[in-house]
Amino acid sequence: MPKNSKVIQREQSHEHVTESVADLLAHEEPLDYKSSSLNVGGAAGKKVPQIEVPENDGRPAWNSKLQYILAQVGFSVGLGNVWRFPYLCQKNGGGAYLVPYFILLLIIGIPLFFLELAVGQKIRRGSIGVWNYVCPRLGGIGMSSLMVCGFVGLYYNVIIGWSIFYFFQSFQYPLPWSDCPIRKNGTLAIVEPECDKSSATTYFWYRQTLNTTSTIAESGGLNIKMTLSLLVAWIIVCLAVIKGIASSGKVMYFSSLFPYVVLFCFLVRGLMLKGSVDGIAHMFTPKLEKMLEPQVWREAATQVFFALGLGFGGVIAFSSYNKIDNNCHFDAVLVSVINFLTSILATLVVFAVLGFKANIMNEKCVVENAEKILGYLNSNVLSHDLIPPHVNFSHLSTSDYAEMYGVIKTVKEDSFPQLGLEPCVLEDELNKAVQGTGLAFIAFTEAMTHFPASPFWSVMFFFMLINLGLGSMIGTMTGITTPVLDAYKVQKELFTVCCCIIAFLCGLLFVQRSGNYFVTMFDDYSAGLPLTVVVILENLSVAWIYGTKRFMQDLEDMLGFRPCIIYFYLWKYVSPLCLIVLISATVIEMAISPPGYNAWVQDLAQERFQSYPPWALGMCFALIIVAMLPLPVVFIARHFNLMSDGSNKLSVSYRKSMMKDISNLEEQDEARFILGGKPGEAPSSGPARKPFLTPGGNKPMDSLSPNICYGTSYQNAAISPTTPTTPSTPLTPESDS
Question: Which residues of the sequence carry a binding annotation for Na(+) (predicted)?
Fold first, then answer.
């Protein structure tokens, strides 16, 4: 208690105290007894959080709940929803894939998403500060999360750069990838051989856009067009995040909503195209036997994991700018459902368009093979008796061709392979699985060349990709900047600009002519395994080290209601077990699959799988090791007291709130001296606080205290203001037995 406090002055005075209690209280500051901790019995059934972080602690805040929801939706809904989910749905049983995906969304996705939202909102700091606060020995979780954000941001913005290049190329008619270029050789004009062997869209992607080399070992120098596109992409990202949520929040109003406008427009237009229904029917025809394959469940779990942006730090960073009593449980369910429905919407759009493309390609196949048959008839290789009488070559339908093809194959069984005829089955075209850049920059662009007013749809499509990528990049950059700005007193604008400049310079690796192969490498190795390890450690640190019951009580104090008891079991047992199985499956998959990449071979005009050279293989494993290195390093350093526990790295706003809590405690203790008779003694009237009942018992929960795995809480004076302060004793992991 301060030396100049009124109670101490009265104790040290030799004057006889004659004031009544009413006189004493008249000289004190008025108290709001409805909200004061002195009102232990006034608000029946209403629990007051033991540690209250003031709303006006100087930390930036969202302008509205809508802005925050759009930011979380923009971060979680990204390019993967458009070009990864539809591919997995097609590959893993069509409509049957939705069953394991939805189950895993309920038992892994929503609980872990809720967990990240809750810890960010409660502690009001970025990923590094949150895990330093919960358990300093596991403070490396936040650092690993930041490392992964850096790796992903480097190559993710390259994809936005590619979209920017295609966006500007779309302002011309016909589209530049509609036809193969013509090469003039003197008086002779021939089609570019590489394009003739592949397709116009494939040639434009690999040769005119990337100008790719045949191996990862051939650098080929910088691609100037892609370098400028990457520069534009980083300028856009920098402008969006330079003011923190003050600038990125406004950008999210457009970047999060515009993709939905485009998707709905594409869906309506796609359903009007011939063959779109065939694509959608093929997509959602369930192959129930696929549900029994472990690979399907593993890929569904991985997609759930990455679709919500778990472990990146962006979710925690965004939620840290919320009010302390925000209903983050509602937010977790809402954003997860929106993400799932967006994936379904994108799948409908993709397969409506690919169904149209499959019909176009199938009709083209029928025409080409019908010309071959006519040639064989004219040269008497085939007899006219093999052609059914009702077949009209000038209006040949796919069913007529299938009948004719079957007759010729049966009669000419021995010599049929030499004829070179193709079956031209629509199902075969629909079964051609395409994902990633192959879907966005080859298959989809080829389909759009057949649209009426194709430049308009191309501009809309690539502008949508830019906005989808921008929303995810804003979340990724926030996951990098927020933890650093919380821990160190640096100028936000200067730090953001420096990050973008460094990222652009590092990103030059991806705009070489061989840069596409490095994008594949980073996508395969920099995030998958490290992020899974980060998330399982997040889950274990909260559920087993801090304690699930204690965390549930914190949620009740923060939200004003008790979360469903199912979360207790999901956080404690189900989610950790699922994540352990996922990590094991990922490691096994990496061990049995030869590390390599699909290289574009110019002479063959097709992709060929190639193994990584030794130096590239070392780079792959270095990405994994560097991303996970902070985990053991921080643990060992803090175990042997070689590193500060992070308590001195609190943000200025958080330190202010702590000091305000301590000041409030002194004032409350002074008032208790007057009302209760001696310092630290609270009035005895009023009901006791109801303990939180859990399956493991009915022990009352402690509030969230920092450094829980050290037992060196620097706020234990603020944890229980009604209890006399005792020396700090080491805290052990909570027992739920």
Answer: 74, 77, 81, 339, 468, 472
Say how far apart CA 37 and CA 4 lie, in whole Å: 23
* Cβ-based neighbours of 527, under 8 Å, separated by 6 or more: 148, 151, 152, 306, 627
Cα atoms in the Cβ-side hemisphere of radius 13 Å centred on 642: 7
468 is in an annotated binding site: yes
Asked whether residue 475 is marked as a ligand-binding residue, the answer is: no
Convert the pLDDT of each residue in 270-311 to its tens digit: 888 888 888 888 887 878 777 888 888 888 888 888 889 888
- pLDDT band of residue 720 (cuts 50, 70, 90) is very low
Which residues have CB under 8 Å from 18's CB, separation 6+? Answer: none
Residue 211 annotated as binding?
Answer: no
**What does the pLDDT look like over 537-595, one tens digit per residue?**
999 999 999 888 999 988 998 888 888 899 999 999 999 999 999 899 888 888 888 88
* Residue 392 tokens, joined: 């009209």
Helix, strand, coil in percent for the chain, rounding step 5: 65, 5, 30
**How far is the C-alpha of 153 from the C-alpha of 514, rounded, in Å?**
19
d(CA 401, CA 366): 7
Tell me whether residue 142 is annotated as binding: no
Residue with tokens 């193709």: 422
pLDDT at residue 735 in the model: 43
Does 648 appear as a known binding residue?
A: no
The response to whether 77 counts as a known ligand-binding position is yes
Domain map (residue ranges) of the chain: 65-360+436-641, 375-431
CATH topology for 65-360+436-641 is Amino acid/polyamine transporter I (1.20.1740)
Phi, psi of 224 (to 5 degrees): -60, -40
Q: Which two tokens stand for residue 355?
A: 């169904």
The two structure tokens encoding residue 257:
């909503």
